[in-house]
Design brief:
The chain is of the alpha+beta class. It has helices spanning 2-21, 25-29, 36-45, 47-51, 75-83, 93-97, 206-212, 225-228, 236-239, 254-274; strands spanning 57-61, 86-87, 103-107, 122-128, 131-136, 145-154, 158-163. It has a 7-stranded mixed beta sheet. It is rod-shaped. It starts with a helix and ends with a helix. Mean pLDDT is 75; it is low at 14-21, 178-182 and 201-253.
Length: 275
């Protein structure tokens, strides 16, 4: 009994999973006349068939009155642009309000094309003035497509949100210029910085400087022969007194005694004469 029920149960679960994940975006949008032009563009570009293969998806739909120049795009460019309106996750208004951050980044279907560059495969949603604003995550892109309402949702498979105007993702028509990488920063040399080069007035050769401002050279006094040669000992002639100065006679000589006696005699004679 249990063996016969098992295959039936598996088949039922498979059919239930298939019916839950499969939907037809064309039939769904056909119920909302305000988005009939957007629905036609999805079918014209071939994107509707790819959307129907998804199990979980969110579509940002533009109403007929704000569709703008999307109708004038070629099928190739139109498919690229409309694929940025398809978010690869389920978002309804309650889930948007539960975001922890004021701005969130979402992956769109163009990211899986293998041609996305410079964040073309991402959208930014920002909580602003009690509502939410969508726009391309490409740097410098406008983000002014405001959430207007929830068109329909089937948790957690498909959600269709109505936005005020088309989003613009730069470069989907091939006009996005590649962004060049900034030049590498020059590393400072390890050696000490050299002094700045001299100016034209200072950059003169040494010969010119010597010619313009000669330096007076003073000859060093040549050393005398006396300075080079060792000092000679004084000669006896230098120590002798002058020739006209006579040295006193030695005390023990007879001539000296006679002169002393004569001097005493003269002194005594003077004293006697005085008396």
């Amino acid at each position: 009994m249990s063996r016969s029920i098992a295959p039936i149960l598996c088949t039922f679960l498979l059919l239930a999973a298939t019916s839950a994940s499969a939907f037809n975006i064309t039939k769904i949008l056909s119920q909302y006349s305000d988005y009939s032009t957007f629905n036609e563009l999805l079918s014209k570009s071939g994107l509707a068939a790819e959307i129907n293969k998804r199990a979980t998806i969110t579509i940002l739909a533009v109403p007929n009155g704000a569709i703008g120049d999307l109708t004038s795009k070629s099928d190739d460019v139109l498919k690229r642009e409309l694929s940025t309106y398809v978010i690869l996750d389920y978002y309804d208004i309650p889930k948007l309000r539960s975001m922890k951050e004021k701005t969130a980044k979402m992956t769109n279907m163009y990211q899986q094309s293998g041609k996305a560059a410079y964040d073309q495969g991402f959208l930014n949603v920002t909580a602003k003035d009690g509502s939410f604003v969508f726009g391309s995550a490409v740097k410098g892109a406008q983000r002014d497509s405001r959430l207007e309402k929830s068109v329909m949702n089937q948790p957690y498979n498909i959600s269709i949100l109505g936005i005020s105007q088309p989003m613009v993702t730069p470069g989907l028509d091939g006009t996005l210029a590649p962004v060049s990488a900034p030049p590498p920063k020059a590393t400072a040399p390890s050696s000490p910085k050299s002094s700045p080069p001299p100016s034209d007035d200072e950059a003169e050769s040494p010969e010119e400087e010597e010619a313009e401002s000669p330096v007076e050279e003073t000859e060093a006094p040549s050393p005398s022969e006396d300075a080079d040669s060792p000092a000679s000992s004084p000669s006896p002639a230098d120590d002798s007194p002058p020739a006209d100065v006579q040295s006193p006679p030695p005390a023990g000589s007879s001539a000296g005694k006679l002169k002393v006696s004569f001097g005493l005699f003269v002194v005594l004679a003077s004293m006697v004469a005085a008396f």
